[in-house]
Amino acid sequence: MNETEPLVLAAERARITEIDLQILELECSLRALRAERDLLQGRLDAFKYPVLALPNEIVIEIFVHFLPLYPEPPPVVGLFSPIVLGQVCQKWREIILSTSALWKGAAVSLNRYSNFDRTLRLLETSLQRSGSRALSIAIDCITLYESVVTPFMQTILSHCARWEHLKLCVPPGSLACIQGPLPMLCSLEIPSLHQFTVALGNDASPILAFQAAPCC
């Protein structure tokens, strides 16, 4: 054995002892930190925000007043959308998703920069959550091609029996898909007949889409 080897081995054993002591100290520190964290989390979990203690009926009434006054439809996404309220906490999300009164209006504004697929999914979901309620719908996409607008028109058309208020700023040809009775429709806003004449030409067929709307 080399004369220096015993010294080296002793130094390594001493270093291992130091490391073990450091590990023990760190483990003690971790246990103390975990205990403090659990204590703080327990206090937070026990705290009840006053607004979360309100009865659901009152919360729903507050939500209704947050949205635009019916029949003005809220946007399907963005500020003043029911989705915004559902992002606050789990309880609010549950209330939003289970309250059809908050989904009876849907406004879609499209432009060439819109995420059309996501907007369409949100529109479909909004209309499904409205249950059997009368609807106020607005679609603004007058500058887009009919191929872009068609899926949105088909989506709202599947709920046409519940249309109560309708505002359509869409390419004129998109109105051709509207067929069947519209028993609840009582207000309608579309571009002027002059705009249709210019867009479709003088030989265009008359627009008959809304003849079956006795209340309008």
TrEMBL record:
Keywords per UniProt: Coiled coil
What is the protein's name according to its record?
A: F-box domain-containing protein
State the organism of origin. Mycena maculata
Q: Where are the annotated coiled coils located?
A: 16-43
